[in-house]
Amino acid sequence: MKRDFAEDETGSISILIIGLFLLTVALLFLITDVATVAVAKRSLVQATEAATLRGAQSLDLASYYNGNSGVAIPLDCNVARGKVFDEIQSWASTSGVMRRPEIVDVAVEEFACFDNYIHISVSARALLPFRLPQSSLVDIEIYASAGAASERSTR
After folding, report:
1. Which residues are in the Putative Flp pilus-assembly TadG-like N-terminal domain (predicted)?
2. Which of 1, 5, 74, 149 is least enclosed, having the fewest CB within 10 Å?
């Protein structure tokens, strides 16, 4: 008794190919979402570092010239706070190459300043370009933090 596979298995390869195609498309969506979050996180880290460095350039002139601060280069924390918030707000409101378009709701979560050291933490939401079926995940919360110290070279 000889079986004829052409009559018994008609269309089974088509179902397999359609299933693999759908799996491939779902994986491409997932990879694109992960890459988008990674690039958005890097962009937020760069902006946080820039804001921290801008704040670390806020010299407290009175303490510096009086020499009573205990550190070589004292920071004016009020001016530093203003510069940090200004830098983050300026970055968040730009468009184009400075800020990724998927980043929204940027906020400074923490600001710490003491003598010659400054530390900030920033949060944002990264919108995902694709939403997988049956998923309510629309965005990802991302965080970045940076610190800087204002020091004088001993040379």
Report:
1. 11-57
2. 1
